[in-house]
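lol so apparently i was supposed to do this last week
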Amino acid sequence: VLLKNIQEAKFQAVLVPIAQRLLSPEAASQVSFDMFFTHILVHELAHGIGPHNIQVDGEKTTVRAQLTGLYLELEEAKADIVGLWGMHQWMDQGHLDASQRDSLDWTFVASGFRTLRFGVKEAHGKGMCIQFNWLMDHGGLRIDSAGQVQKDAPRFREAARLLAKEILELQAHGDRSRAEALVKQYGGLRPELAKLLERLGDVPLDIAPRYVTAEELLLQKRPS
Ligand SMILES: [Zn+2]
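anyway here it is w/ zinc ion bound
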C-alpha cells in the first residue's frame, strides 16, 4: 500500500525545495509528483527482480548470505536504478509518456538528494550515494561552477543502465568481491556532494504524518 497523500506531502515539503536549491530553475520546474510517485511504485517492483536462491561454486546459497554486510545498500540501489531504467524502457515502448523523460530524471535526482540526507550509515542513503557517485563518474551528472547539478541526458541514461546491469549481475552471481569493489569505490560521501547537502540545512528531512482519524478513535475509546 502506497499512501498517495503522504507521498505528496513529502514531495511538496522536501523534494520541491531541494530541487529549487540544487537544480537550475528550468530543471527544478520539471520535477513532477507523478514521476515521483510512479518511481516509488517501480522501486518496489524492482525489488522483485533477481534471484533469492543461487549457486556459488556449486554450493546452494542466497544472494543475501553471499553479500552479508553489503546486501541492503546494494538492494536499495538496485531498486532505485532498475526502477529508473525500467521507466525509460516503458517510455521507449509507449507505456509511459516519453515527453516526461527529463521530468523523470530530474525528479529522480531531487529525490536522490532527499534520500542521501538520511546518511550513508542507512541502507537507502548509502545506496543513493553509490548511484550519485556512479552517475557523476560516468558523465551523466556534474556540478557546475554555480553549484547547480547538470545532466548529460544520453550519458545519464547509459550510466543508469550500466549500474543496473552491474548490481543485477553481481547479485545473480553472488559475487562478493565485485560487490565490495563497487561499494568501496562509490559508497563514500565525497566532498562535492557533502557541500550540496550543506545547502539544504533548513529543508525538512522528512514529514511526520498525523493520523487524525486514528487519534479521534483512540480519544473516543479512552474512559472519561
Ligand atoms: Zn526499497
